[in-house]
Amino acid sequence: MFSAGNGGMGKVVFVGMVVLQCCENYEMENVRACVARVFAQLGGMDRYVKPGMRVVLKPNLLNAKKPEDAATTHPAFVEAVARAVMEAGGIVTIVDSPGGPYNAFWLKRVYAQTGMEAVADVTGAILNADLRVETVLLEDGALLKSVQILKPLVDADVIINLAKLKSHMMMVYTGAVKNMFGAVAGTEKADYHARMNDYDRFANALIDICHAAAPTLNLIDGITAMEGEGPGSGVPRHLGVVIAAENAFDADAVALDIIGVPHDHVPVMRAGIAKGWFSPSSVQVVGVPVASVRCDHFDVPTLLLRENGAKPGKTLFSRFGGLLRPRLEIRTKDCIRCRKCLESCPAKVIRVKPDKTLLIDSSGCIRCFCCHELCPEKAIDIRRGWISRMLVADGLAGKMRKRDNRPPKG
Ligand code: SF4
Ligand code: SF4
User: What does pTM read for this prediction?
Assistant: First the structure.
């Protein structure tokens, strides 16, 4: 189980226990009070951090986005956790591999834009600049036998995963498990997309990577989440929640219950359940009840729900697959020709035309949405045919989600 964590502290593992707390906004006083309540319910920070320990905070630093875009873990949340760890005597380093290249120049830019630089300035936390990776062997990997992950994660005594609650065009939802994909360095991530372009295989790879990194604790910033075309181009949505659990799946299960998405519509959760790493029935929520914070109509990419295996959709999908699949198109008038999409495309299907504009060859596109995720100008459109629009417009998809919704836990 992921909940075994790393650091070998011999602590009691609260398998299945999830702390859910409300936090109205990102005002520091509120966030710090919320983080204090979360750790009190987890049994105290000293259960996890002893003086002198190297503690990695692993936020979601998807791209060089501003905090208000809701694409990255909010700096106030990172700061509040950093301060709590430091009060317990931990030495904090902020570590992530954002989308795009993994080099000093890009990291600096991402740290500045996402507010991490400011967090480091006010708290004294270290911003990781160590670009080395290390191989971790996975004897019980679902798919992978070894993974190369960022060395500071391997060297840490404690890893606190600080995920962001977002919709995800490829994987439906991203939270705690998916956030550990940032343990893989830069463009190596594209390699995983290219090799595992089936969503369920990719989900197993994500689980193995999370397993290799072995976060000790998983916190999800759901104060302002992202819905719609996440993880990079969606719309901020206020939920006002913070979720924490030792098992990344447990934290994600509660996040999904809050946004009303059945677990088996999310490839990572399906794979986790199938492999026995997660059992929905074992999740116990403490803090505020899920029912009191559940939101209506959180917009996740419903078309992909059927592509990813929902039963009625699967039948439809196998029959009309080509018509249902979305097509990605570059909006030339908004494109600044930065070529980030071209560099990140694992299938190498984006080309530069003689007039220097860019074009996506749909026939070879594996719909990983990396280009969409990384485009700084939101200049890539997702086009759907009329059949898929008809199904998605909260018709069949919405009804399916409502029908399949599980009863609240906690
Ligand atoms: S990433 Fe966006 S802005 Fe940059 S070249 Fe691609 S489409 Fe254009
Ligand atoms: S064009 Fe975009 S969605 Fe298609 S394979 Fe390339 S990066 Fe992925």
Answer: 0.86
